[in-house]
Amino acid sequence: MTPKEREVVITAMGIVSPLGSNLIEFKKRMFAGESGICNIRGNVVGNSFPIPYAGWIDQDKLPKPTWVEGTLKDSPLFAALATEQLLSELPNEAKIDAIVFGTAENIGFDLVQESFKHSIDDETLKVYTAEHILHVVSDTLKNSGKQSVDEANLISINSACASGNQAIGMAMQRIRAGNWKRAIVGAVDTRCNGSNLMNFNMLGALSTVDVPANEASRPFSGDRCGFVRGVGAATFIIESRKSAEERGANILGVISGYGFTSDSYRLTDGREDALAVIKAMNLAIEDGHLSKSDIGAISAHGTSTPLNDRIETKAIKEVFGESAKQIPVTSLKSQIGHSTVAAGGIETIACLMMLEEQMLAPTINYKVPDPDCDLDYVPNHARKATVNHILSNNFGFGGQNACIVISKAN
After folding, report:
1. What one-character-per-residue DSSP string does 301-336 give?
2. Pick from 249, 239, 260: which is nearest to 392 by CA?
3. Is 118 a catalytic residue?
4. Is residue 234 within 8 Å of residue 82, measured between CB atoms?
5. Which of 38, 132, 192, 338 is catalytic?
6. Inter-CA distances, 3 with 218, 241, 289, Å
7. What digits encode the pLDDT tens for the residues 20-55?
8. Hey, how many other C-beta atoms are within 10 angstroms of the C-beta on 89?
9. What is the pLDDT of residues 329-379, one digit of tens each?
10. Quick count: other Cβ atoms within 10 Å of Cβ 323?
11. Active-site residue flag, 301
């Protein structure tokens, strides 16, 4: 098999996001520099709640999934809707070797509360665990009548905000090694509720400044003061180039490289020297057999917290040296907030669209220069560009850093 045949490619994608729950709407609004962040007081939270806004989605306005029985909500609903957007791109009886999802669900307070009322059977337990999301995705594929799924490979990944990129990277490695031919990969997070918001607020991580909701997320701007919580889901068909070409699939992009590091420095904040972040970025570029000059843009983690944006800027300058200031850096979180576990998935869709359109999405709400953040952040307006490779960064709590390189289809 030639090196090109061994390439790992993306042949379909689906999205549920604050900028739209289909690819057409998401692309239009992203390049227009719109914000999907809205006021949540009196709706998601009380009128006096300290956090006034989020990249929230009204589930009552989402369509009902076609291929899963029963009533779904939260992460299972988002995962099912995003997965259904892939179905038209799969041939009849296509074999799915694995389902790999970045998920945030765990056994939490709701399950504990239920256990005091009655014993918990296996079916009830599924409702409260990541396994339930994986089974919803599997059922969506099987019930559509087109796909067979290897249920020995239903894999849930939770590496905090690095989960989306880690899920993509893991699938890429398994396919590149010849273990799998084709996988459904995704990431989902819908934990925008009072308790989750307060957890982040008590860490001092969230923006609570009194501004219009669409101006609250301000990555790299000197007046940034914390991130804005978001929700969403993204799904992909990821397969070998050989598999894609054999079935005549439309190749949207190539996953060229993946780098993952974990420094276990602190639970929440990263190292000031950015050591592990720098290494993850370098590993992703090296894994793609690329030179640093090949990277035409960076999809930043760009959370809008004072610490993250400063450290990420430092890392970019360490990796790229004198050329760092010539590389555009864009943060989608300025438009949709930080969907934590789902962020890498949604940002990968953004990267694929930027490569397809040869247009860079803007970092909106950039108003005040910061001497510690002195790169080209594509401020406020989309920009035409010639770009073949985008480095996408995700950094999670606990020092988990996942970087991938997405390359233009050819």
Report:
1. ---S-HHHHHHHHHHHHHHHGGGGGGS-EE-THHHH
2. 260
3. no
4. yes
5. 338
6. 41, 10, 11
7. 999 999 999 999 999 999 999 999 999 999 999 999
8. 16
9. 999 999 999 999 999 999 999 999 999 999 999 999 999 999 999 999 999
10. 12
11. yes
